Amino acid sequence: MAPMTPTALDDLLDSLVSAALAGERPTREQLLEVLRAPDEDVLDVVAAASRVRRRFFGRRVKLNYLVNMKSGLCPEDCGYCSQRLGSTSEIMKYSWISSDEAVQDATRAVAAGARRVCLVASGRGPSDRDIDRVSATVSAIKEATSDVEVCVCLGLLKPGQAERLSEVGADAYNHNLNTSEQNYGDICTTHGFDDRVQTVEHAKQGGLSPCSGAIFGMGESDDDIVDVAFALRELDPDSVPVNFLIPFDGTPLAGRWELTPLRCLRILAVFRFMFPDSEVRASGGREIHLRTLQPLALHIANAIFLGDYLTSEGQAGEGDLAMIADAGFVVEGAEDDADAAPAARHDLVAVRRRGLGSSLPANT
Ligand code: SF4
Fold this sequence. Notes:
Number of strands: 10
Helix content: 25-40%
CATH topology: TIM Barrel
Oligomer: single chain
Bound molecules: iron/sulfur cluster
Order of helices and strands: HHHEHEHEHEHHEEHEHEHHEHE
Number of domains: 1
Largest sheet: 10 strands, parallel
């Protein structure tokens, strides 16, 4: 297919912005064109998505924080996951942490600016005893910190389990579709796409705010990206994590590096046009795939995870906060400090002691 002319791309982006601001769905062909936009036009795509983001979220960035309550040793075989059956990734493996540990971790994150804490555990799905345990933790976090949202992510739900979490004050449930229905069998064989859809439906029926997104960089085509975006829209999620594959050694997708920073921005823009007023979160893998372009992602997404992921380290929390401030955004909940001058960063000024005039090699 011939690339679009600059004028045709401008028209497409104007029409996507108008539709998004009116709450209308983009068409499949429009989203495919966004994914095909040439590298030299990606800033135009970002600017268009940014108009939508600004209308609904201003310059706020919501910080989410992951609490990994149970790590590794999962019986499922999701190919992208370092905790999967047969994974030889050298990750930390542990059984349930105590409620006290979870509360301490969550409280520190809230003090650092997190508005939502996500309680996550590996596994196919929770037993009723697991629901008891997590319910106690949800209640304890709600008691210890005011004004924090608690999201729970425990895998496939059975009927009635969402209701129990909702009764103790959980706000949301995360369960991602991850990839298109067509592609699903290539990334997991122990459960199916329909199982995942059903769990999001259980969460909604149980009164929990649905959080569901996807992972990219797993061999999917542009059509797969658009397919999963449409499948997610059918579920009407309140928040949509957009993950980029972290290719762990010891998993089937080890060594797979197929994303570029510009492709990540196009994918994020697709999700902003599809979910104009939902929380779109630049999630796992943003540091390693967006790299120096991370701040541009903030013009499209209105949320990120603060700090580390479940089994891999993220950018330092301080680095996240500095990036948000430097790019002219403000952490949700800290709007009052938005125009405060930054703290002095003496650590950033280093006297040169290498290259000319020294016996050390130059910085090249
Ligand atoms: S994504 Fe969840 S269900 Fe799949 S292997 Fe990892 S921990 Fe298990």
